[in-house]
Each structure stands twice: as structure tokens, then as C-alpha cells.
Design goal:
Layout: H1 2-36, H2 38-42, H3 50-75, H4 80-98, H5 104-130, H6 138-146, H7 148-167, H8 169-176, H9 178-187, H10 214-219, H11 236-244, H12 247-276, H13 282-311, H14 318-339, H15 343-358, H16 361-370, H17 377-393, H18 396-406, H19 409-412, H20 415-437
Helix pairs in contact: 1-5, 1-6, 1-7, 1-9, 1-12, 3-5, 3-17, 3-18, 4-5, 4-8, 4-9, 5-17, 6-13, 6-16, 7-8, 7-13, 12-13, 12-17, 12-18, 12-20, 13-14, 13-15, 14-15, 14-16, 14-20
């Protein structure tokens, strides 16, 4: 009887992971769709400068990071599936409304509204997954969930580029927002397990099977195996204060901010870079860079998650050391890709750089949730979201745009590999601090 109950729990956890990962894919598709449309928006009736194009990403991110702490506090106390459903519906509607923009300010407002919805989802979904799966496999779980970053981003480039070429930039926004409406309803079918439900020593790793029939999602609620008793969460202010005294967590977030600065700048400007600097046709630029992102993202994210879980058996700071090493390795290849005059070397070095960057995706997010208590995980992710965007990709797209207006895009993108180097160095300090203080992803 207990065996069948455990199998049901594993099946439910796998279905939930599949649903949340699919939603995350559309999350990043909607987020990076606008990057594929930069050149059309620049030469449209809106007549946007590169600085204004950069602020389209920044407006979304500013709202995203400002509302994330609010949803983090709500996620540690309220119904997580309902909050996620609200977020998915909100960003999908805002994406569709972007297609009706008649001025720069109205487009800016629509993109900003996307940030509200994504803040609700991005802060709460990882904490929900942490209560579906035990510590021993969270690197792999987070790798699957965050694999939606390269896949969704790549689909945003490809879908946006193709829709723009054949139907115009407005049609790309109209169509992209539709799937999220149905996914928002599906979120309401998820169950909300107790905080810390899978932190007990006897909880085995739930496998990730294919999507089960819809009745499975309705019928099965996760009954946690050997959960640890967790106290009620402290007040939001006390929670955030306590997180700021957790040195390994703070260093992890600061390294993630430098990483996000680099990745956000690269993601926003690479299609335009390939068109202007490399002379590629618009559709080819978006599709080719999207292909690099999806291939390296799939391989790198999965490999990083599995490798992180394996190494964590031998070191409590393995997730952070792996993130640091892979990011430091990525820096010289990113520099080479953005400065070489050889098209062949560009593709080789960019593939290696992206592969190394994606290796850290699962491990660093697993480290973030494991470095804090179960009752603070949504708040920890929310504070992380706030910090990495405030110091990261809120700054990099408009900064690169401003430097491009003053000099050239070829010169402006050179700040990306420097930020990658900073991320690797800070994560080294985070891993060392985790070992010294005894706090780590074990």
C-alpha cells in the first residue's frame, strides 16, 4: 500500500514538473520575443533608438524585480498554484496587448506589465518544485525546469523572427500571448504541498515520467514522505533581513547578478549584432542564434544538473564550485566570439561559451534553495530575482544600447565577457564561504 502511494507521489511530482517546465518555456518565449523584433521596431513608425530598444527589456525587468519580493512573501504564506495561475494569465494578456501599441510609451507600458505576471511565476514555481522533490535530486529537477530558458528564449527568437518576416511585428505579439491563457487554467489543477515536505531524510527522488492523463493531476495529491516539521514563517521584513545575513546565499546572488548582466545583454543584442556587424539577413540572424541557444542550452543545462547532483555527494559546495568553474571557462570564449573577424571562429567560440554558461543554470538555482530554510524559499528566490535583475539585465541592455549609440555595437558588446569573468570569481568566494560556514547544498 505504501509502495503504491509512493509511486503515485512520484508520478504526480513528474507531471507537475512537466507542467511547470512547459509554462516556463512560454515565460521565456514571451520575454525574449521582443529581442527578435528590435530591428523592425527601430525602423517602424515608432522610430526607436537603440537606447529606447534597450529600455523595452529594462521596463519589464524593473517591474519584475520590484514586484518579486511581494510575490515571494505571498508565496511563503498563500496558495502557490493560484498565485502562479494569476501570473501566467497576466503576462500572457500583456504580451498580446503589446501588439496594439500605437506609441513607444504604450509599448513600454505593455512590456512592463509582463513583469508583474512573470514575477508571480518566477519567484514561486521553484519553491513549489522544492516541495515536490527531495534535496538529493534538486540539481536535476532545476535543470529540467530551467532548461526552458534556452528553449523558450530560442523559440522567442525563431518565432519572433519568422512572424516578423511574414506577418509583421504586431502579429508576433498577438499570437505569442495566446497559449498562456490555457496554461493559467491548468495551474489551478496543481496541488500545494506543505513547506519542507520533501526535506525529510527518507524522501526518495521522484522520477520525471511523461505527462500523465489529466485525471492524474486531478486525483492525486502529494502525500509527503517523512516531512520535517517546519515552523510558521517569520514576518516578510524579518525573513529578508535574515536572508541578508546568510553570507553564502548573498554571494551566490551577487555572482548570479553578474552572470545575468552578461546573459541578458547577450540575449537582447545578439540578433542585432549578427545583422549589423556580421551582415546576416534578419531571419537568419534570429534563427541561427536561436539554434545555438537551444542546442547548447539543452546540453549544458541537463549536463550541469546531473553533474552537480553527482558532485554534491562528495562536496557540500559542489553546485557552487561547478557554477564558478564553468563560468570562468566561458569568459575567454565569449571574448573571442565577440571580437574575432572569422565567421567560423565566431560560431565555434560562441557555442563553447554558451555551453559553459548553461552548465551553471541548474546547480546555482539548486544552491539557492538549499542554502535557506523551507519556509523562506519563495522569499529567497524573490530576493534573488530582485537583486540579479537590479544589478544585471536591467542595466545591461540599455547600457549596451547607449554605448552602441555613442560608438558601435561591436564595441559595446565587449562588456559581456568581462561580466562573465566577474560572475565566476564571485561564485568562487560563495563556494568557499559555504564550506567555511558549513552551509551548503547537501
Amino acid at each position: 500500500m505504501a509502495f503504491h502511494a509512493q509511486k503515485s507521489l512520484q508520478a504526480y511530482a513528474g507531471v507537475s514538473l512537466a507542467i511547470l517546465s512547459l509554462i516556463n518555456l512560454f515565460n521565456y518565449l514571451d520575454r525574449y520575443l521582443v529581442s527578435a523584433l528590435f530591428e523592425s521596431l527601430k525602423h517602424s513608425e515608432l522610430a526607436l533608438t537603440d537606447l529606447k530598444l534597450g529600455f523595452l527589456m529594462t521596463s519589464f525587468l524593473v517591474v519584475y524585480m520590484l514586484t518579486a519580493p511581494i510575490f515571494g512573501a505571498l508565496g511563503d504564506r498563500g496558495s502557490r498554484p493560484r498565485l502562479i495561475a494569476f501570473g501566467v494569465g497576466c503576462w500572457s494578456l500583456a504580451t498580446s496587448l503589446s501588439g496594439f501599441a500605437g506609441s513607444y510609451l504604450s509599448l513600454l507600458a505593455a512590456r512592463a506589465a509582463v513583469g508583474v505576471g512573470e514575477a508571480a511565476y518566477g519567484t514561486i514555481a521553484p519553491s513549489l518544485l522544492a516541495d515536490y522533490f527531495p534535496k538529493s535530486g534538486r540539481g536535476r529537477v532545476m535543470a529540467i525546469f530551467f532548461c526552458a530558458i534556452p528553449v523558450g528564449s530560442a523559440l522567442g527568437y525563431v518565432f519572433g523572427g519568422l512572424m516578423d518576416t511574414h506577418f509583421g511585428w504586431r502579429a508576433a505579439f498577438f499570437v505569442a500571448g495566446i497559449p498562456g491563457m490555457a496554461l493559467a487554467v491548468l495551474c489551478l489543477k496543481l496541488r500545494d504541498p506543505p513547506r519542507g515536505a520533501q526535506d525529510g531524510p527518507a524522501a526518495p527522488l521522484a522520477a520525471s515520467p511523461p505527462l500523465a492523463p489529466a485525471r492524474t493531476v486531478h486525483a492525486m495529491a502529494p502525500t509527503p514522505a517523512a516531512p520535517l516539521a517546519t515552523p510558521a514563517p517569520p514576518s516578510p521584513l524579518a525573513t529578508y533581513r535574515k536572508l541578508l545575513t546568510n553570507k553564502p546565499y548573498v554571494l551566490t546572488v551577487l555572482g548570479y547578478a553578474a552572470y545575468t548582466f552578461a546573459v541578458g545583454g547577450l540575449a537582447s543584442w545578439m540578433p542585432a549584432f549578427l545583422e549589423r556587424v556580421r551582415g546576416m539577413p534578419r531571419a537568419q540572424a534570429t534563427v541561427s542564434f536561436g539554434a545555438i541557444v537551444v542546442i547548447t542550452g539543452f546540453i549544458g543545462t541537463f549536463a550541469g544538473g546531473w553533474l552537480g547532483d553527482y558532485c554534491a555527494k562528495y562536496s557540500r559546495s559542489a553546485y557552487l564550485w561547478l557554477s564558478a568553474a564553468s563560468t570562468l571557462l566561458a569568459a575567454p570564449f565569449a571574448w573571442g566570439a565577440l571580437t574575432t573577424a572569422s565567421p567560423t571562429l565566431y560560431w565555434i567560440w560562441m557555442v563553447i561559451a554558451e555551453l559553459c554558461l548553461f552548465l551553471s543554470t541548474g546547480p546555482v538555482n539548486a544552491a539557492s534553495v538549499n542554502l535557506v530554510s523551507p519556509t523562506m524559499r519563495a522569499s529567497a528566490i524573490a530576493l534573488q530575482v530582485f537583486a540579479i535583475h537590479l544589478l544585471g539585465d536591467v542595466v545591461s541592455p540599455p547600457l549596451i544600447g547607449a554605448l552602441s549609440d555613442v560608438a558601435s555595437l561591436a564595441e559595446a558588446v565587449k562588456i559581456v565577457p568581462l561580466a562573465v569573468l566577474v560572475a565566476g570569481v564571485v561564485w568562487c568566494f560563495a563556494a568557499y564561504s559555504s564550506q567555511v560556514t558549513g552551509r551548503g547544498p547537501d
